[in-house]
Here is the input.
Amino acid sequence: MNSYDQTVYENARRAGLKAYRRAVSAGTYPYLPALDLILGENEEPSRTAVGTMEIPLDLVAGTKSADRSNAFASNFMPLLEVHSEFALKWLRLYAAHLEEGIRDAVQVFEYRRRFYVQEGNKRVSVLKYMNGASVEAEVIRLTQEKTDSDDDRLYMEFLEFFKVCPIYDFQFTEPGDYRLFAELLGLDLSHPWTEEQICSVRAAKACFSRAFLRRHKESGPDEISEAMLVYLQVFSLGSLLERGTGEIEKRIDSLGAEFRTKISRDNIYRVDRADDLDGEPVWTPLFFAARRPAYTERAPLRVAFLYDKNPESSSWIYPHELGRNHVEDAFRGVVRTMRFDDCGRGDLLADRIRCAVEERGAQAVFTISPVMMKESLKSAIRYPDVRFLNCSVNLSHNAVRTYYSRMYEAKFLMGALASLMSERGRIGYRADYPIYGTVAGINAFAIGAAMMNPEAKVFLFWATEEECDWRAGMRGADVDVVSGADSIRPERASREYGVFRVRDGSSVSLAAPVWNWGRYYELILKTMLDGTYDARALTRDDQAVNYYFGMEDGVIDVVLSGKLPYYCRKTMHMLRDGIRSGSLNPFGGELRAQSGIIKPEGSAPLSNGEIITMNWLNDNVIGRIPEAGDLNRPARAVVAVSGVTGHGESAGGKHV
Here is the structure.
């Protein structure tokens, strides 16, 4: 061993000892993780031969057997003495790599997207020392029986991705990320990607990683993958191949808060009550009066409302338009609004936002559909001084705030009423999209129905399923009370909305939910006028802000038919008072899904986050949550952005 060789090994060993001491100080395991110890005495995993391929070195996490782990620190750098036989073999591999490269493939086991070396630990060590990017490996995949945990759902989604794009370059961290990645590229997880598409994706990832690591040097493969997913929601894949590293770095800088929000564990700040809007502004009280925006009739707050359809044809947009008219009247000229209809296409929406901001001076922009979030985010990055809000829930972007109502509170009341008015306890429920918040409404309705009649059954039909005739389904289920659409189209009056009773072929309205968007917009715009929109609690650069108001703040209610029996109305008023005061919560105590008990008696109410993302159906619901492929094309577009993930056939059994 000459002095040059010895210096190389000493440097590698020094890096290993440093990592060893750091791990000991932190109280963590200082050697290579051993897969045998990770698996323990659990049932033997099934094995699948994946084949020989290039795998990313930064995903090689450990060794297969515990008896080989103590020669290396956790970073794969050697720990044994310089004059040992181990050191001599290590240096021979190092010399071979310098002369002709390491040609023999290592043998690895892949377990949950990380690799553990069966044969070739020293080869991996040398390549890591040389800052190699990848290694040729014979890969055997180990899989265990899946559960319904987030980790298992994520891994199952990765396996779907791997079937169409057999690479390990992307290490996303949340269920739905692989599917979103494919959709951003105009692809899917059902049809194999071409070699050209795979090569482009890998080349783009290399360009992004190079630029991102120049700004965030300590980032690991998970953080880089998540950051690229955020990047692709604003900029194209082609831009990574066509732009220089410097320009990509500037774009990465503009997305800094979005990156931090994506990887933050506590990345959504929910404002659940209007009283929580009264926060401390970012600027200090001393300068508050001087720096606070001074909006007047001569210099009003200009607000744009952008609709994907138009109020005359859409029952969803019509109440938003009433809300826009309300704020015009409520603020008496201090707030001036503008309206843009039929902005559904991304290119059209981008142009309308540009017109609103650049030509008409909009200082705040409301987009009222989840499908408009992508372009809203792009525009928010393009116009950082404009406030952007999107009517959706659980979409975590720092640059765009979201707002939605706790409609499940109204659904609970209507479920109770439907049960009281049903003679047979057979109630129909027409749903639209399986998106965040919708499933909570179904379950709250079913719980309300069961509280009035423990034998009540709720028959669930999705109007957006391909070739679905929900009316025929209701007739076949022999229901006598139905929960229909939440509102009606202005040009198509009908009694088949809200809760209605069906008898002898005719419908009789019983109750309907009311979206008071005027009240909602008034509450939000007031914070822009008084300076509390930028309160400290709402301006963290690693959190998204989601307004999630309910009956307590008057943004939703239930209108009852004047023909309801007296005691029926009395019951509804009592339940409404309980919801408003917070003394009644449909998701408190024991909860039962189709798959069984998921919360025992005496449990605290679910958090709003758990309510929004629930993907199970109550035990008295007859039906299922459809897969995206079961829906019609417009519905698939909505679900792609804001759809509930991870549900099963009918129970959807995620246990909270």
